[in-house]
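Researcher: Here's the sequence for the chain we discussed earlier.
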Amino acid sequence: MAKKTLFAVALILSGSVSALPEDRDQPIDIQADQAVMNETENRVRYEGAVEVQQGTFKLTGDVVDLTTNDNNEVETFLAEGAPARFENQRRLTDKEPVRGKANTIRYAFDTDLVVLSGDAEVRSEGSLFAGPEITYHLESGEVIASGNRAERVNMTMQPKTND
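Model: Thanks. This is the structure I predict for it:
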């Protein structure tokens, strides 16, 4: 098995790159065809065209598992789909939100890390990162894409335009 190579690439965009701070103050809205709660495991499984939204952050999948801590605070979302998708508006001035898709998307609520696995893609302002696994930090905009000789990382950057 080829040794995994980690490529860290800072997503360089003009202006501030933090997620909208008011998103954290918004309620989390979850819609699905069905939900099964397991209180002993602090987990809820949502199935069937699941849509999760908090402010400008959106996560969709065929199945989404939500885990909480003992204080009933959200810890993680794990979305699976064909593909699962997320989007997030980072700045009020952005023309389009950052968008990503993959077979599996794990969002760690406390660290604002989104890990996309399996045919992963992240798009921002016309640029594209693609690879077998991508970690995206909602607050800083940092993208870390990992691959190997068999499954390479790809980045396509669009030229800067004078608007």
